[in-house]
Amino acid sequence: MSNTYKSAGVDKEEGYKTVDKIKKAVGETHNSNVLNHLGSFGAFYEIGGYKNPVLVSGTDGVGTKLKVALDSKKYDSIGVDCFAMCANDILCHGAKPLFFLDYLACGKLDSEIAAEIVLGMVEACKDNNCALIGGETAEMPGMYQPGDYDVAGFCVGIVEKDQIIDGSKIKAGDKIIALPSSGFHSNGFSLVRKVFPDFNEEFEGKPLYETLLVPTRLYYKDIHKILEEVQAAGIAHITGGGLYENIPRIIGEGLCASIDASKIQIPSIILELEKRGGVAREEMFGTFNMGVGMIVVVDAEHAEKVLHLLDDAYEIGEITEGNEKINLSF
């Protein structure tokens, strides 16, 4: 028998099936700016309506949260996570997402699983007025075991140059507003999996994996609702490294984000991990979002307006003078 690509472990037909299963749904994310369709070597997106546009891009993956999804055979939320981790980053600069591309790698392709992951991205793109304009599926036997998948994405957004948010306008006296997370989001899962090895155990009346796989919250509508009304001085997406690593990224020299950690509304699953794992509170705040998915820094006179615009937003601190960049009081 002669060798074939299929005998080496790559099934092209399964790839074609994946495209067939997602093609119509992906097309529903397209608008008049998308000039071609799936199948081209490159994706075309026309930009119009801006005076001095700046493109803002971000790329990320889902990390070892994928292991929870694969072991639990629940794949629909992972695509949302992949999109959210990229799109939420570019929101920090005031950008609106334009288009998204994905990369899916595996040992042996299952079109049903691949389609379920991509369809999660489709729903997230729709929620963010963003076009899913392309992607790549790589079947790599020998690099990945059968049943293993890795997912990454790339998002491009746009903002007028004079409306870029980069933290340079943050000043002492500004208020720090927290936007709640939906849980762990997609960070810290190497520790999550160590503390919670059994994803099927019951937690608050349902299998634990259902809580762990709640997708990363999408902040597009919330952030741009704020930006339509007030000028934010800084925005930070709280991902890996928690508040300790992410908030200082937007704080200038001579300033400090002074945060009252006792005001933070920590989800029960995060508190359970802290208790069960015997993890120190400072380590928790340096690893997880602790219930704060995004923070927005605004002038003190605009703080109340922001709190009224978003039902679940709340104040956790203010900007002070100092060289620490961040100070959490427990």
UniProtKB/TrEMBL annotation:
Cellular component terms (Gene Ontology)? cytosol
Q: Which SUPFAM superfamilies match?
A: PurM C-terminal domain-like, PurM N-terminal domain-like
What broad class of enzyme is this?
Answer: ligase
Q: What is this enzyme's catalytic activity, as reactions? A: 2-formamido-N(1)-(5-O-phospho-beta-D-ribosyl)acetamidine + ATP = 5-amino-1-(5-phospho-beta-D-ribosyl)imidazole + ADP + phosphate + H(+)
Give its localization. Cytoplasm
InterPro entries found in the cross-reference section: PurM-like_C_dom (IPR010918), PurM-like_C_sf (IPR036676), PurM-like_N (IPR016188), PurM-like_N_sf (IPR036921), PurM_cligase (IPR004733)
Q: Which GO terms describe its biological process?
A: 'de novo' IMP biosynthetic process; adenine biosynthetic process
Q: Which EC numbers does the record give?
A: 6.3.3.1
The answer to whether UniProt assigns keyword ATP-binding to this entry is yes
Where does the protein principally reside? Answer: cytoplasm
List, for all copies, the residue spans of the domain called PurM-like C-terminal. 171-324
Molecular function via GO: ATP binding; phosphoribosylamine-glycine ligase activity; phosphoribosylformylglycinamidine cyclo-ligase activity
Alphabetical list of NCBIfam families matching this protein: purM (TIGR00878)
Q: What is this protein called?
A: Phosphoribosylformylglycinamidine cyclo-ligase
Gene name per UniProt: purM
